[in-house]
Amino acid sequence: MWQGVLDKAGKAAQRQDWATAEGTLLAAADRKGVPPTVWFQLGKVMFMQRKLPEAQKWFQKAAEAVPNVPDGWFELGRALAADKRFEDAVKALHRALALDPDNGQAHRFACVAARESGDMELAQRHADEMTRLGEPMVG
Predict the structure, then answer these.
(1) Band of the pLDDT at 137, cuts 50, 70, 90?
(2) Segment 63-91, tens digit of pLDDT
(3) What own/partner pairs with CB < 8 Å and gap ≥ 24 does 51-60 have?
C-alpha cells in the first residue's frame, strides 16, 4: 500500500505535478502505520513548492520518527535555512552531521547558516571541514 502511494507521488513529482504529489501524500500522512518516508517525501514536495513552514513540519516529523537517519535532519536544516531561520537550521544540520560527519553538503549549509546567524567562528569551522572533504565552496 505505502509503496503505491510513494510511487504515485513520485511519478507526479517527476512531472512537477506538485498538487497531485501533495494530495497523494497528504491523504496518507495521518493514516495509522504510515512510514516516515511518506512524511519525508511530503516535506520534499512542500519544499519544492516553497511551502517552507509545511516542509519544516513534515521533515521534523520524519526526523523525529527516525532520529538516527541523517537525511531528515539535513532536509529540515535546508528548509529552515531557506526560511531564514538560521540558528534553528544550524541545530538541525548539526544533528545530521552528528550522524554523518563527512557530509560536505551539510557542512556547506551549516557554514552559510552559521554565517547568516552571525557566528563567524562556527562558519569557519564548517568551511574548514568543507576544505578537508574537498567540498566546493560555491554551489
Answers:
(1) confident
(2) 999 999 999 999 999 999 999 999 999 99
(3) 52/79, 52/82, 52/83, 53/83, 55/79, 56/80, 56/83, 58/29
- Look up the pTM and report it: 0.92
Task: List, in order, residues 6 or more apart from 94 with CB less than 8 Å away.
Answer: 110
- Res 138: pLDDT: 67
Phi-psi region of 16 (alpha: psi -120 to 50; beta: other; left: phi over 0): left
Q: 43 and 59 in contact (C-beta within 8 Å)?
A: yes
Question: Which DSSP state fits 66?
Answer: S
Burial state string for 50-79 with b = 16 or more CB within 10 A and e = fewer than 16: ebbebbbbbbbbbbeebeebbbbbbbbbbb
Contacts of 132 (CB under 8 A, 6+ apart): none
In the structure, what pLDDT confidence band is assigned to residue 1 with cuts at 50, 70 and 90?
A: confident
